[in-house]
Design brief:
The chain contains five helices and three strands, in the order αβαβαβαα. It is mainly α and 160 residues long.
């Protein structure tokens, strides 16, 4: 996520990595119908200066996945590293709005689920319910994004 690389460069490198992963899985005779792959989305580096929309990120990610991940793999669970919680949610939603894919597309967000909770707890350390509500909200939003049904209008104005 860090660095000055472009969206295109990330596509090339992600493709190479996923091809290598697939080759090793085949060599080890892994049953692809029983695995989940945990990739990153195809994103430009944070220092690239490239302004890329969620739909463009989704399209680039889907192109790489269709070129590298066999349809026999049941699902991909994306990482959120380097993205704000709302960016990760919006991009997962954009991925799922691209239409039916041969795999389920979901999330394995750590940072994007935890950051709002930690912020809520830091703001009100004695209010456990406030932090729990922040977690439930992010989980609900990502659940909607998982089905391509998320909208920015569902987010509070202060979410980043």
């Amino acid at each position: 996520m860090d660095g000055g690389h472009s969206l295109e460069r990330c596509s090339v490198v992600t493709s190479a990595v996923l091809h290598a992963v697939h080759d090793h899985l085949v060599r080890q005779r892994v049953d692809l119908t029983g695995i989940l792959i945990k990739p990153s989305m195809v994103l430009p580096g944070s220092e690239s200066g490239q302004d890329v929309g969620d739909d463009e990120i989704a399209a680039a990610t889907i192109r790489v996945l269709r070129d590298t991940v066999p349809a026999s793999v049941p699902g991909l669970v994306f990482l959120s590293g380097g993205q704000t919680p709302m960016e990760a949610t919006a991009r997962l939603d954009a991925l799922n709005r691209t239409g039916p894919q041969p795999w389920e597309l979901s999330f394995s967000f750590g940072r994007a689920l935890q950051a709002p909770v930690l912020d809520a707890w830091a703001a009100r350390p004695d209010d456990r319910q406030h932090a729990q509500a922040a977690l439930m909200h992010r989980a609900r939003m990502n659940g909607l994004a998982r089905r391509g049904r998320w909208s920015r209008s569902l987010e509070p104005a202060t979410v980043g």
